[in-house]
Amino acid sequence: MNELTHLDTRGQAQMVDVGAKADTRRSATAEAYVTLLPQTLDLIASGGHKKGDVFAVARIAGIQAAKKCADLIPLCHPLLLTAINVELTAQPEHNRVRIEATCKLKGQTGVEMEALTAASVAALTLYDMCKAVDRGMVVNGLRLLQKHGGKSGDWSAEAQP
């Protein structure tokens, strides 16, 4: 396990200086789930929701959130992302929507927080848009699936059952 590096010599929190690190291509992918009633999922999939295309709005919200990650997460570096992809997939066999967010850049630090933020905000947006018809929705399963590049190299999460 890597040593925590967000502390200065006095033990105070600081943003890590990545200025001496080389630019490398980096990417990260995260996922989250929203479990909902079957009729809520049908409403979204049919396009019959009064608020419009729920998936499109949640996708845009996730993209915007990734771009604003440094404004939301203390000590997170502001990054010039080169690509953000947020996909929402209905999984009616599980009464849920799966959200997968991938962020990429060529830079000095990773994009794990941006991918996690994108997935979580997309999930919360879906919840917000559907809460009037399904207050019992559950947002869960937020996790990093993989990261590529950087000093620590590649990493992938173990598959869940």
UniProtKB/TrEMBL annotation:
Keywords: Lyase, Molybdenum cofactor biosynthesis. GO terms for biological process: Mo-molybdopterin cofactor biosynthetic process. The keyword Lipoprotein does not apply. Residues 15-150 form the Molybdopterin cofactor biosynthesis C (MoaC) domain. Substrate binds at residues 75-77, 113-114. It is an enzyme of class 4 (lyase). Coiled coil: none annotated. It catalyses: (8S)-3',8-cyclo-7,8-dihydroguanosine 5'-triphosphate = cyclic pyranopterin phosphate + diphosphate. Gene3D superfamilies: Molybdopterin cofactor biosynthesis C (MoaC) domain. The active site is at 128. InterPro entries: MoaC, MoaC_bact/euk, MoaC_sf, MoCo_biosynth_MoaA/MoaC, Mopterin_CF_biosynth-C_dom. Its EC number is 4.6.1.17. Pfam families: MoaC (PF01967). Signal peptide: none annotated. Pathway: Cofactor biosynthesis; molybdopterin biosynthesis. One of its GO terms (molecular function) is cyclic pyranopterin monophosphate synthase activity. Belongs to the MoaC family. Homohexamer; trimer of dimers. Catalyzes the conversion of (8S)-3',8-cyclo-7,8-dihydroguanosine 5'-triphosphate to cyclic pyranopterin monophosphate (cPMP). This is Cyclic pyranopterin monophosphate synthase. It comes from Exilibacterium tricleocarpae. The lineage of its organism: Bacteria, Pseudomonadati, Pseudomonadota, Gammaproteobacteria, Cellvibrionales. The gene is moaC.
